[in-house]
Specification:
With 453 residues, this protein is of the alpha/beta class. Helix content is 33%, strand content 18%. β10 and β11 form a beta hairpin. The N and C termini lie far apart (65 Å).
C-alpha cells in the first residue's frame, strides 16, 4: 500500500535497488572484450567515422593501437584531439556520429563500438595516472577563462600546454559544467567528472576560482584590463518557461535542477520523486530526467513531446533506452495547463498537435494526464548579463571560424555561442580551437582585430 501513496517523496526503493538502478550504463570493456571489438575495425584509410567526429580524433589509429596491445598510446591519440575524451566516450551520441558513419553499420552488421573502445583507452591512461603533456616554457601571458565546463576546460588545458598561465572563473562550487551537473548519473558513475577535471588540471598553470559569476563578482571589462586574452565558455544558465496556467504550482520543476540534484546527492534515496511523473520535452534532458525518475521509483513516467518521434532531439538509442526502462513516450502533445488539487499538481492538461504546411498547430482536442510531479525540459536559454557590447546572434554570442567575438581579445565557445549543436564533444572542439587561435595571436605579438562586425 505504501508504494501506491500519491505525492512526491523520497526513499521509494531499497538501498540495493538504488545501487542496481544507478549502476554504470555501459561498463568498461575488459582487455579481451576490447581486443575483440577492435578487431572488427577495417582501419579505413579515408575513415568516415573520423570525419563524423567533431574533434577529428584519428579513430582508426587509436583502435589499431588497442588491437596491438597499446592502450596508453591509444589514449594519447585521443587526448591529442580531445582532452575530455573520457567523458565524451560516456556521453557522446556516438550512435548519431562516429558509429553512425562506420562502414560496418549496415542492415546486416552493427558498427564498431567506437565509444566503448575510446573509454577503454582513456580509462587505462587515467587510472595509471599517465600524463602525455608537459608545459612549454612560460610565455608570461595570462588568460582568463570564464566557465569550467567542457569548452573552458579544453581551452584552459591547451593554453597551459602552450606555456600560458590560465585562471578559470566558474559560478558553481565544482568544476565540470554539464559534465558534473547536467548528465544522467548512470552515464558517469564513481565521480568520474571530478576525476577528469583533476586529470585536466594536473598539467599545471591553471588556477580555478569557484562561485564567481560574470556580471556579479567581476565584469568583462575587469578581465580585459587584467588579462592578455579572455575565453568565454559560460554555457546556458536559463530554462525556458512553459507559459501556461499552473506552472508555478508545487511539483512543477526544472528538469535540469532535478538532474543536478541527483548528480550531487550522496544518497539517491534522499531525492524525492512523484508516483506519476510527466516530463515535457523531446531532448536529452527530457530522456535523462524521465529515466532517472523511473529509476528512483516512480510508478508511471510519461514524456510528452509536441512533435513526432522523428523530430525528437534525443537520439533513437536514447528513446529506446527510456522505453526499455518503462518510460512512456507520447508524441503530438503540447502542455495547455497544469491542474491542481489541494494546492499541488494533480494532472496536466494537454492539447493535441499536428503539422499544417510545415507549421505546428493544435487540433482543438485536449486530454488530461494524471501527475503529481511535472518536469520542464523544453530547452535552456542563454543569460547574457555582464557581456557588455558583445554582438549577439539569435540570442547567443556571435563568433567567427576561430571563435573570436566582436570585441578585441575575447573568444567564446560551447553552448553559449551561435551555431553550436549543444554537444559536449563540440564544446571541447570549440574550446580547443579557440585556444589555438589565442596562442597564435599572442605568439605573434599582435592584437586581434574585431572579428565579428
Amino acid at each position: 500500500m505504501e508504494r501506491l501513496e500519491t505525492g512526491i517523496r523520497a526513499g521509494r526503493l531499497s538501498s540495493a535497488e538504488y545501487e542496481d538502478n544507478f549502476s554504470d550504463l555501459h561498463p568498461r570493456l575488459d582487455k579481451h572484450e576490447a581486443l575483440v571489438a577492435a578487431d572488427r575495425c577495417y582501419f579505413c584509410y579515408d575513415a568516415p567515422c573520423m570525419t563524423a567526429c567533431p574533434t577529428s580524433i584519428d579513430i582508426p589509429l587509436f583502435i589499431r593501437q588497442i588491437s596491438t596491445g597499446n592502450p596508453l598510446g591509444s589514449a594519447k591519440t585521443i587526448f591529442d584531439q580531445n582532452i575530455l575524451g573520457g567523458m565524451c566516450a560516456r556521453v557522446c551520441p556516438t550512435e548519431d556520429l562516429c558509429e553512425q558513419a562506420c562502414v560496418r553499420n549496415t542492415a546486416e552488421e552493427r558498427p564498431v563500438e567506437i565509444g566503448r573502445l575510446q573509454r577503454y583507452a582513456t580509462d587505462a591512461a587515467m587510472q595509471a595516472g599517465r600524463q602525455f603533456y608537459s608545459r612549454a616554457a612560460s610565455t608570461a601571458k595570462k588568460i582568463a577563462v570564464v566557465g569550467a565546463g567542457p569548452a573552458g576546460l579544453a581551452a584552459a588545458h591547451r593554453l597551459a600546454v602552450k606555456g600560458h598561465d590560465v585562471v578559470i572563473y566558474d559560478a558553481k562550487p565544482k568544476s565540470g559544467g554539464l559534465n558534473e551537473y547536467g548528465i544522467a548519473t548512470y552515464k558517469s558513475v564513481d565521480d568520474f567528472a571530478q576525476k577528469e577535471v583533476e586529470y585536466v588540471l594536473s598539467i599545471g598553470g591553471i588556477e580555478v576560482k569557484h562561485e564567481q559569476l560574470l556580471g556579479r563578482d567581476f565584469s568583462l571589462s575587469d578581465l580585459q584590463s587584467e588579462y592578455d586574452a579572455v575565453f568565454l565558455g559560460i554555457g546556458l544558465a536559463g530554462v525556458n518557461a512553459l507559459r501556461v496556467e499552473g506552472e508555478r504550482l508545487p511539483g512543477v520543476e526544472d528538469a535540469v535542477d532535478f538532474i543536478a540534484a541527483l548528480r550531487q546527492a550522496g544518497n539517491k534515496a534522499s531525492i524525492p520523486v512523484g508516483r506519476r511523473v510527466v516530463v515535457l520535452g523531446g531532448g536529452m534532458t527530457a530522456i535523462d530526467a524521465a529515466v532517472q525518475a523511473k529509476l528512483l521509483g516512480a510508478d508511471e513516467v510519461t514524456i510528452c513531446y509536441r512533435r513526432g518521434k522523428e523530430h525528437m532531439n534525443a537520439s533513437e538509442f536514447e528513446q529506446d533506452l527510456a522505453t526499455s526502462k518503462g518510460v512512456i513516450i507520447r508524441h503530438w502533445l503540447a502542455p495547455k495547463s497544469v491542474l491542481s488539487q489541494d494546492g499541488k499538481v494533480a494532472a496536466i492538461e494537454v492539447e493535441y498537435t499536428r503539422l499544417v504546411d510545415g507549421r505546428l498547430t493544435t487540433t482543438g482536442e485536449t486530454g488530461v494526464i494524471a501527475a503529481d510531479q511535472v518536469f520542464k525540459a523544453i530547452g535552456q536559454t542563454f543569460e547574457a548579463s555582464g557581456l557588455g557590447a558583445l554582438r549577439m546572434e539569435s540570442g547567443r554570442i556571435a563568433i567567427d571560424g576561430e571563435g573570436r567575438t566582436s570585441l578585441e581579445g575575447i573568444w567564446a565557445g560551447g553552448d553559449c555561442v551561435f551555431g553550436g549543436d549543444d554537444l559536449t564533444v563540440s564544446a571541447v572542439a570549440q574550446g580547443r580551437d579557440a585556444a589555438e587561435s589565442i596562442n597564435r595571436v599572442l605568439a605573434a605579438g599582435a592584437q586581434p582585430a574585431a572579428a565579428v562586425a
